[in-house]
Amino acid sequence: MELIHTSEGKKLYRDGDRLVKSFDSTYSKAGILNEALNQARVEETGLNIPKVLGVSVIDGQWSLIWEYIDGETLESLMQKHPEKTDEYLSFFVDLQIRMSKEKVPLLGHLRDKMHAKISASSFPATVRYDLHVRLDGLPRHKKLCHGDFQPSNIVITKDGTPFIIDWSHATQGNGSADAARTYLIFKLQGKDEIAEKYLNLFCAKTDTAIQYVQRILPIVAASQSVKKKPQEQEFLAKWVNVCDWQ
User: Fold this and answer.
1) CA–CA dist 200, 181 (Å, integer)
2) How many Cβ atoms sit within 10 Å of the Cβ of residue 227?
3) Angstrom distance (rounded) from CA 223 to CA 219
4) Does this model's pTM top 0.90?
5) d(CA 177, CA 171)
6) Separation CA 136–CA 139 (nearest Å)
7) CA 113 to CA 190: how far, in whole Å?
């Protein structure tokens, strides 16, 4: 097998037409099996995603096996062709809107996941309470939400077919909350101009008020903070604490 990517606690290998994702001991068996289950459930939609081929223990480590999608990430294409940024962003938003039209009723609910993360955050009780209230005030949708929708998770094949990868955070819920997370990801990456263009495009294409997505951002920032990445904490705290609590 050829090692093609390493991240904290995970390694990706290519084995011919298969992709093997290997997890270290910091990941629970339940979490790994849940990722496979999430992806299998999303497979039943009309979306292009890699098919789950198996779950195994390889060299003592739990591993997920998917079909390998041969192509280039949208992130890589955007870096190579900055003059096409607007075109690629429009394509990206259209794909997200297409995804959000799918229903996967057996997936967990984004609202429940966010409530749990707010409770697990280190913000004061008063702030957590306000975040819970704000979250409960959002419309109760059941749209397919990716949870980490960003250009690096879109693979474009040679014939131009887009595949959405990495469904470990998939839920059903409010599509604008998924968009708020994408916006926050761009901001955390220091891509402020792209973040603003993205948000404006998403809101224009979905006829959504920007203020509506902005009201969700503190909730998403609080949920992101539980990852406890030192380089993100100050930035996320500003997003949570700068809110106009009403």
Assistant:
1) 14
2) 10
3) 6
4) yes
5) 11
6) 8
7) 26
Residues with Cβ within 8 Å of residue 52, at least 6 apart in sequence: 36, 39, 40, 43, 64, 65, 66
Main-chain dihedrals φ then ψ at residue 116, nearest 5 degrees: -65, -40
User: Each residue of 4-43: pLDDT tens digit?
Assistant: 889 888 999 999 999 999 999 989 999 999 999 999 999 9
Q: Following DSSP, what letter does each residue of 194-209 receive, concatenated?
A: HHHHHHHHHHHHHT--
Query: 224 in helix, strand or coil?
Result: helix
Among 133, 97, 109, 100, smallest CA distance to 218 is for 133
Query: Are 32 and 49 a contacting pair, CB within 8 Å?
Result: no
Q: DSSP letters along 151-189, please?
A: GGGEEEETTS-EEE---TT-EEE-HHHHHHHHHHHHHHT
